[in-house]
Design a protein that fits this description.
Keywords: Membrane, Transmembrane, Transmembrane helix
Largest sheet: none
Distance between the termini: 21 Å
Number of strands: 0
Shape: elongated
Helix content: 55-70%
Length: about 90
């Protein structure tokens, strides 16, 4: 019995409340960055560059926080799903 979770397991299992908040803040940061990048003719170059960094930081924060799971109970849930499907949960997707 392996305790390692695959990426698909991590993405399909519930995310803890703290990381859901982090994901929401990261998406908001990315949206502000996208607004700054979308209007390059109206803004100074420094703000457009800042916008591109905000988009990058927001997307990385959202992606990393989406893969967080509570240790223990979710691992057991993923293992039960694997046994029910007769293989890895990625095969069921």
């Amino acid at each position: 019995m392996s305790n390692k979770l695959s990426i698909t397991d991590r993405l399909t299992l519930p995310t803890p409340r703290f990381f859901r908040k982090i994901r929401s803040v990261s998406v908001a940061i990315g949206a502000v960055g996208a607004i700054l990048v979308a209007a390059p003719a109206l803004l100074p170059a420094a703000l457009v560059t800042l916008g591109s960094y905000l988009v990058l930081a927001g997307s990385i924060g959202a992606a990393v926080s989406s893969t967080a799971v509570k240790p223990g109970e979710q691992a057991q849930e993923a293992q039960d799903r694997k046994e029910l499907m007769g293989g890895s949960s990625a095969e069921s997707l």
